Amino acid sequence: MDKQILQAIRQKQELGVTLLLEHYGGLLNAIVRKYIAGRPQEMEECMADIVVAIWYHIDDFDATKNDFKNWIAVIAKFKAIDRLRKIERQQTTVELPEQLATTQDVELDWHTILRQLPQKEQEIFQKYYFEGLAAKEIAQHYQTKASWVHNKLSRSRQKLRTLFLKDEV
């Protein structure tokens, strides 16, 4: 069956897609559902992305390195992860009301806002964003790795974002 599917898709015959979905549709759907459960429209679009990726990259498949089922499963997994990231990015993007976006005289009191963070995170946030120190320099100050600093900055931004969304500041 795999040979038929491969041959049809390589010859750009729509029958290949039909056979692919009849034979492996359940597997692909299960993989997508693992990452994007509860979002039928997103799942459908992800399945379409998977089929398109298989269609256009069929010549990249090498039977000596992998079997067809595993190859399409990997494509499905990464397309589903990409779609999930896209969904998460869209959810974290907050649109400001037009009044707020056009107001010139809005000034934030960063010292008050940063007090919502633990002391160490306040210091790291100030050094990085206000003093312009590199993560590597801050890491040396705390005798740790730059990745730790980036992790602290990311968590701080997330905490501040949550506070802004709750209007607690």
TrEMBL record:
<dbReference type="InterPro" id="IPR013324">
    <property type="entry name" value="RNA_pol_sigma_r3/r4-like"/>
</dbReference>
<comment type="similarity">
    <text>Belongs to the sigma-70 factor family. ECF subfamily.</text>
</comment>
<dbReference type="InterPro" id="IPR013325">
    <property type="entry name" value="RNA_pol_sigma_r2"/>
</dbReference>
<dbReference type="InterPro" id="IPR039425">
    <property type="entry name" value="RNA_pol_sigma-70-like"/>
</dbReference>
<dbReference type="InterPro" id="IPR036388">
    <property type="entry name" value="WH-like_DNA-bd_sf"/>
</dbReference>
<dbReference type="InterPro" id="IPR013249">
    <property type="entry name" value="RNA_pol_sigma70_r4_t2"/>
</dbReference>
<keyword id="KW-0804">Transcription</keyword>
<dbReference type="Pfam" id="PF04542">
    <property type="entry name" value="Sigma70_r2"/>
</dbReference>
<feature type="domain" description="RNA polymerase sigma factor 70 region 4 type 2">
    <location>
        <begin position="110"/>
        <end position="160"/>
    </location>
</feature>
<keyword id="KW-0238">DNA-binding</keyword>
<dbReference type="GO" id="GO:0016987">
    <property type="term" value="F:sigma factor activity"/>
</dbReference>
<dbReference type="GO" id="GO:0003677">
    <property type="term" value="F:DNA binding"/>
</dbReference>
<keyword id="KW-0805">Transcription regulation</keyword>
<dbReference type="GO" id="GO:0006352">
    <property type="term" value="P:DNA-templated transcription initiation"/>
</dbReference>
<dbReference type="InterPro" id="IPR014284">
    <property type="entry name" value="RNA_pol_sigma-70_dom"/>
</dbReference>
<dbReference type="Pfam" id="PF08281">
    <property type="entry name" value="Sigma70_r4_2"/>
</dbReference>
<keyword id="KW-0731">Sigma factor</keyword>
<protein>
    <recommendedName>
        <fullName>RNA polymerase sigma70 factor</fullName>
    </recommendedName>
</protein>
<feature type="domain" description="RNA polymerase sigma-70 region 2">
    <location>
        <begin position="20"/>
        <end position="89"/>
    </location>
</feature>
<dbReference type="InterPro" id="IPR007627">
    <property type="entry name" value="RNA_pol_sigma70_r2"/>
</dbReference>
